[in-house]
Model the fold of this input.
Amino acid sequence: MTERGENSDRQRRTAAPRVRMPAAQRREQLITVGRQLFAERGYDATSVEEVAARAKVSKPVVYEHFGGKEGLYAVVVDREVRALLDRLTTALTGGHPREMLEQATLALLDYIDEEPHGFQVLTRNSPLLSASGSFSSVMTDVAHQAEHILGAEFKNRGLDSKFAELYSQALVGMVALVGQWWRETRKPPKKEIVAAQLVNLAWNGLSHLEPKPGLRTRRVR
Done:
């Protein structure tokens, strides 16, 4: 046997065997890989070839499960939207309106902190100021929830409830933009401090800011 033939034979023997997974497990693996790549590179710069290579499968396997890159991306985005909405819905346990504002703010910051790939997927191809896109859609849903809360609070205080929608959009937009900024800068490093400052501005206004704001629902660590 020639030296080239011996090297080729040796490479075949030492190459890691392709792992055969059950279909459901393989699908989850591809979703995880796709999520990472879409977060790192964005939708347009990610290819089926890259997904397959990172998952150590052939391209037809990706097509078999999702029909292509578009199908995989749709599944990844849908999961992130539901995960974020679940966090926000679970966080709103009721109580004083200020506490609910804290709960929603902390839920969004927790998601940004704990699921950086997911947040990047939602925002990379849909800027926060865009009227469309996955993240904008989630924030619109949150704003609608906030609108009902603010509307009831406005009525209790004798204020015009028709402005509840405007205020809810302003509050949600402020938290979302600050959350994006904080993800990139990490200043201040503790998300509880960020949340306390946001709630301070939203609840008290510029003319009545507390010098050292705290949180009612979570201790600033």
Q: What stands out?
A: The CA atoms of residues 93 and 100 lie 7 Å apart. The chain has ten helices and no strands. The chain has a mean pLDDT of 85. The radius of gyration is 23 Å.
